[in-house]
């Protein structure tokens, strides 16, 4: 299962949820594409990242996932734990593939 941001945005629109953001997420992944170490250039809303790395067929624990959701471009940061205790972290710039589950807690305000 691929964790996709667009279905979350569609649910937000259906419920008139404004300014949505992810508070936390736990679960596990077996692939992710991340921009490492704040290497953005070009500025918002569409930065280009200089150091992008794909992690494929590697089991990760989701230690943290936070950020904002927007049709104009979401801004998500993730911290992933490896079996040896090391971590990898960065901006989510591609799909992440859920291994078992991803329990995403999302918050926003309702339109009046």
From TrEMBL:
Residues 1-112 form the PPC domain. Gene3D superfamilies: Hypothetical protein, similar to alpha- acetolactate decarboxylase, domain 2. It holds the Pfam family PCC. Transmembrane segments: none annotated. InterPro entries: PPC_dom. This is PPC domain-containing protein. It comes from Homalodisca liturata. The lineage of its organism: Eukaryota, Metazoa, Ecdysozoa, Arthropoda, Hexapoda.
């Amino acid at each position: 299962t691929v964790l996709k941001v667009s279905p979350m945005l569609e649910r937000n629109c259906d419920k008139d949820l404004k300014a949505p953001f992810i508070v936390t997420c736990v679960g596990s992944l077996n692939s992710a594409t991340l921009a490492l170490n704040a290497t953005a250039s070009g500025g918002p809303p569409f930065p280009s990242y200089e150091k992008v790395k794909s992690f494929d067929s590697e089991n990760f624990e989701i230690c943290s996932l936070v950020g904002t959701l927007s049709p104009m471009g979401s801004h998500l940061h993730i911290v992933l734990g490896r079996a040896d205790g090391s971590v990898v972290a960065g901006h989510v710039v591609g799909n992440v593939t859920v291994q078992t589950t991803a329990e995403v807690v999302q918050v926003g305000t309702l339109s009046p």
